[in-house]
Structure formats: structure tokens, C-alpha cells
Fold this sequence. Notes:
Order of helices and strands: HHHEEH
Shape: globular
Structural class: alpha+beta
CATH architecture of the domain at 32-107: Orthogonal Bundle
Amino acid sequence: MPKKLDPDEIYTPSAPGSRTSAAAAAGKASSAATDEALVFEYIDQQGMRGATDDEVEQALGMLHQGASARRRGLVLKHKVIDSQKSRRTRTGCGATVWVTVASLARTGDTA
């Protein structure tokens, strides 16, 4: 049975059965909380314009794996949601635009 996610935990996934992946995830846990706060703050500052993972990566100088994992943790905690909009990435692919629930609350809008 899969482990139930605790919404207060920092999301640091690892590949099942991989010792090196588990070690990397454990090593990242100490900075993950700070990174998660930075990702939240950046997306929140964008207001209802929101941000794609690619925009977060560029703005914060993060690698894709770290930025998307921190954003995913925020989604699991119900702090960030899919705006139902998309924008192009640097490579021209469509990407989900993420907004904070706090931004929605400030505007009274719904995504």
C-alpha cells in the first residue's frame, strides 16, 4: 500500500527501490523547505498571471527537477493550483500556468 502523503511534509520524491535516489532525496530535504518557500513566493508574486515551471526555473535559477518537485509539493498541500491556462516555454512547448490559492483569495477569482 502506498504511503499516504502528509501535507506538512516537504515533497522529496525518490525512485522506488533506488538507494542512490533515496539518499539524494534525503540529502535534499534540508534545503527543500527553503526552495519550496522561494517557489511559492515567486508564483504568488505573479498574482493571477501565475507562472509556469519553466518561468520558475528561469527566475530562481533552479534546475527543472528541483523547481517542479517543489511546485508539486505546493500542489499536494493545496497552496498552488492549475489555472487552466497555458503558456509557451523557452522550447516552444505548452506549459501549465500555476497560481497560488492566496492569489485567488485576494482577487476573489476562481481558476
